[in-house]
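CHAIN AND CONFORMATION:

***
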Amino acid sequence: MATKAFQIRLPENQSPTQTSSDPINADTQAAADRDDLETLSLVVSRASNAILIMDSAGLIEWTNDAFSNLSGYASAEAVGHKLSDLVFGPSTDAETRKAISRTLNTGEELTTDVLQYRHDGTTLWVECKLIPVNDDVGRLSRWIVIESDVTRRRQTEEALLVAKKSAEANSRSKSEFLANMSHEIRTPLNAILGMTELALTTDLSREQRDYLQTVQTSADALLELLNDVLDISKIEAGKMEIDEVEFNLAEIIRETTKALAVRAHEKGLELAVHMPMTLPQELRGDPTRIRQILFNLIGNAIKFTETGEVVIDVEEQWQTDSEVCMHFSVKDTGVGIPKDRLNKIFEAFTQVDSSMARRFGGSGLGLTITSQLVRLMNGKLWVQSSEGKGSTFHFTLTMKLATNNSETSDPMLLSTSDTKHANRSTRPGHPSLNDRRVLIIDDNATNRRILNEMLTHWGMAATLCDSAARALMELETAARKDEPFDLVVLDAMMPVVDGFQLAKMIRKRRDLKPGTVLMLSSADHLNSQTRCDELGIDNYLVKPVSASTLHAAVVSVFDRSDSDVESSETVSRDGTFSRPSSPRLRILVVDDHQPNRKLVESILRRRGHDVRCECDGDAAVAAYRHDRFDAVLMEVQMPNRDGFSATQEIRAIETASGSHTPIIALTAHALQGDREKCLAAGMDCYLPKPIHAADLLNLVEQVAGGNVAINSESSETLAEQTTGSFNIASALHRMGGEVDLLKEHIGYVLNDMPQLLEMMSEAIEREDARQLQIAAHRLKSLVSSYDHEEARDIAQKIEIDAQRDRISEAAARIETLRPLLKTFAQAVDEYLQTK
């Protein structure tokens, strides 16, 4: 259908002749203008885009053929109507209608997509451009509208949107499914692990034990895989959250390497950590995710390394007043990665080649999770590797400096602003390390470098040796010059002549004057401490050794040497546990409250004793039937079978066998008559809580050696308390000065106190006197460790009320107890944050 070309008129009072005063030239110009206008009119009418011209009010004056083809309206049908009246329908977006109407009123240009109706009622999507045309004085004279069909594009976009929503829904469903499956799998898996662990404590043949250990190893691997799959699903679903809390970087690295050290030592690998002493350690970030990243990278390095070493290096890239960027690297001497696989190892379920999974195991998820975690923390992860020569994984993280951050959080170290000759290594009451001469003997160059950096930072003068032969030469030279070494730091595991052989050779050579000997080892063998005792070695540490641990050990040996403390002392003045000169004891600890149980276990294990823990009287009796113990520590108040009944059962068993195992009663400030009950039940002696590390060790070792008589009064003095609200320092003293042990116990306090209060409230509602008595007893034990006499006394009164079935009186006391515990919890939490 042909359309008459629209003639574009010039503004009124103006003609082409006005452009020239020459009539001939004016006529020529007018003819040229008419030709141009006709040409332009023809182009517009034949354009493929739909074009409309509307007056300033929005009424259509002209349309081209393309508009008629697009809309189904002939030009004559369209002229005189508004565009909205012709092409808008019920499904046209209301916001689009408003936008076009607003544009016609304001005279501004607009481009928008419109769902447009044809003459026959069908719809299509068009891109509509409204272009205003103004006259010479700037007044709106008309509108030009250009439309193009974008239906296919819109359909594609809508299809993509639907697909995106479907994918997101599928991802959510997958995550929910994995979470549900995780719960369902964990339930039987926990049962498998738990029952396997219990079965391994019973009498088994070697073949049966091998079978069960295989089951345990496989279940652990399955649990690890389950955790990896869950992490991947959380990250993909965008549910992985990054926290920001204050933490100590050195502590995170120490905990991570300590957990992996056994795995490395089983393969004979050196596991070393190099962390400059000047690094800021108190930071703000997500310690859980940093630990996970390190665990994955170090674990991978150990897995793919058969011989050599795994070295963790931490350095500062830059620092501002509020932030620091840390560069971490994990270097191994393992199998390496081919160049063509370097870009693929961070993909899910990917390993270097298929033989890796068969040879080393693993799902290939660890590096994927690591890369995603680093990305979520706005860091960068990359790898350098050479096939057959090992790999180095690098990652950087930018973290905020913690409030009141200092150069180092270790209270034993001062900042680098100290002068060269300042005593940077000691606190009041400790011996100076400044200018003490130390001989470091280790065949591993990395370990020598790290030890040298630590010891020289504390002001010591270090000499490095890589073999026993070289060490003997240095000792002989020092003896000839009458400049003997104050300290010999000796690696136990060296080729040709190991550390123990060298120590024996040194001890035979009195002329060498070796001073104090400190043994380091990559493997904590059961007989290592015994061999150290036999050779007169002053202390023994398992690598990798943190700066604070090494410092404590060095100060400890000099402390004993300088003050001539007898070697039989139970807990050294710096708070570290020295090993017993008596044989290692096998001890059964029975307590239903985990904080108490873990505290006693940690104290005994640090002393070098072998400990088995049970949480009720029935389990204690079962353990006694199938195992031999040198002593039993028995909590009196426990649900189900209590300590009195369990002791009577054990004594009945012993009547038939003719044996006798010392049983020490444990209770939180026992009520009147409990002492008599303990002795009547067959217990040998009595140790009230809160537990003091030194008193516990002395009593256990004396009782196990047969040196404490029944009805001994010696432990009665252990119940003495200091005055005041509460005393964190007193708790630290009871735990032998072990800060990490105190921090662990504070964690239990913060977790258990609210639960115990809730348990007591519920017991009052149910009028369950027995449950109330147990909860009050546990709470009393917690607060007693911190000399909180007021809270302890109220808890003890509630315990007495429960024992005498005075529920209403107990309820009133709980309300008095709540604010005390709230204040106490805040104080210990603040203390925990500073450590």
Notes: The first strand starts at residue 50 and ends at 55. The mean pLDDT is 77. The first helix runs from residue 23 to 46.
